[in-house]
Amino acid sequence: MTDSLNTTEKFLDEFKRFSIKDLKNEIDVYNLLESIFRINNFQLLEDLAFSSKYCVGLYHILSQNKTEVSDDYKKEIEQSFSETVELIKSKLNEIIRHFPEFERESFKSRYFEMTHAGINNLISLINDFSEIKIFLNRRKREK
Q1: Confidence grade of residue 66 (pLDDT, cut at 50, 70, 90)
Q2: Given this model, what pLDDT does residue 73 score?
Q3: Are 95 and 36 in contact (CB under 8 A)?
Q4: Surface-to-core class of residue 32, CB atoms within 10 Å of its CB (0-12 exposed, 13-18 middle, 19+ buried)
Q5: What's the distance, Cα to Cα, between the start and end of the chain in Å?
Q6: E-strand spans in 71-143?
Q7: Which DSSP state fits 112?
Q8: Using alpha carbons only, how large is the chain's radius of gyration in Å?
Q9: What is the pTM of this model?
């Protein structure tokens, strides 16, 4: 467990030196990362970060609301966005199943409830992992 805590702190310190943006959900990101490092599944982080970056791109397309885009294209983007959000929730569930029950339920109530606050929280968390994807890409290029 100490190794996963050290790895998480080192990872976030490196991220903070790289990024000009602060994580909006730093405590939850920390807990998610610590769980990923504890179960030794870095691929899960890669997948979550990739899906988050893709989701943010789709969200930006949807929020532009350009009139010259066909209705079919909009529906396709909306469907891809919905599917990607569900995929991200699935990845998050995979991670939080390793949380103690109270923390797991607290996380679910903050990010998975279909309320205005829950959806905003989830989008905010997705944005955080999108930033982590940018950081991971840069780390790969520097190696």
Answers
A1: low
A2: 87
A3: yes
A4: buried
A5: 27
A6: none
A7: T
A8: 16
A9: 0.93
pLDDT of residue 70: 82
CA–CA separation, 133 vs 115, rounded Å?
27
Q: Which residue has the tokens 């955080």?
A: 128
How many alpha carbons fall within 13 Å on the CB side of residue 116? 0
pLDDT at position 74, please?
A: 87
What DSSP line would sit under 33-88, residue for residue? HHHHHHTT-HHHHHHHHHHHHHHHHHHHHHHH--TTS-HHHHHHHHHHHHHHHHHH
The separation between CA 110 and the C-alpha centre of its own chain, rounded to angstroms, equals 14
User: Is 125 exposed, middle or buried (CB count within 10 Å of its CB: 0-12, 13-18, 19+)?
Assistant: buried
